[in-house]
Amino acid sequence: MMEVFRQMVNDCIRVGLQHDISSMKFLCKLAYKQLVSYDILTYYKLCAISHAAGILANRKKSLKRGLQPRQPYAIRSLLISCYGFKIVDGFLRVPLGNKQYFDIPLNNYLGKPLPTSV
């Protein structure tokens, strides 16, 4: 799933470079149509567009400063999202879609409930 996310980010970067855009709004309009082919939850697609917009904005800023940046792309497999994650019975549940989850076991320190404030 992380590799699919990386591929989506790179597809969004390609679209942004093709049309010379770096804003989230325009990138979303153009790139979302291409991301339909990926069988993944919608909020992962939006997070990929957001990540690509950040990379393109940093590139644009470097160009304004007179630097010559390399061709931007996501190298490492990654997954950036803040939606849908839950901690259940000592496991971090990552949603995959169709009510399927990938469970990551947490150690004792992370699995403890948070203290309540008085």
Gist of the model:
With 118 residues, the protein is an alpha+beta fold. The chain has helices at 2-19, 24-31, 42-64, 108-111; strands at 86-88, 91-97, 100-105.
Write a structural description:
Strands 1-2-3 form a 3-stranded antiparallel β-sheet, with no helix packed on it. Helix content is 45%, strand content 14%. It has helices spanning 2-19, 24-31, 42-64, 108-111; strands at 86-88, 91-97, 100-105. The chain starts with a helix and ends in a 7-residue tail after the last helix. The chain has 2 domains: 2-64, no CATH class; 84-118, no CATH class. It is α+β, with helices and mostly antiparallel strands and 118 residues long.
Morphology: elongated
What characterizes the major β-sheet? 3 strands, antiparallel
Helical residue percent? 40-55%
Radius of gyration: 18 Å
Mean of residue pLDDT values = 81
Model regions low in confidence, pLDDT < 50 over at least 5 residues = none
Strand content: 5-15%
Count of alpha and pi helical runs = 4
Q: Number of DSSP strands?
A: 3
Distance N to C terminus: 41 Å
Strand order of the largest sheet: 1-2-3
So what's the oligomer here? single chain
By helix and strand content, what is the structural category? alpha+beta
Q: Strand-and-helix sequence, N→C? A: HHHEEEH
Number of individual domains: 2
What descriptors fit this protein?
118 residues, 2 domains, three-stranded antiparallel beta sheet, 3 strands
Q: What's the arrangement of secondary structure elements?
A:
Layout (H helix, E strand, L loop, with lengths): L1 H18 L4 H8 L10 H23 L21 E3 L2 E7 L2 E6 L2 H4 L7
Antiparallel strand pairs: 1-2, 2-3
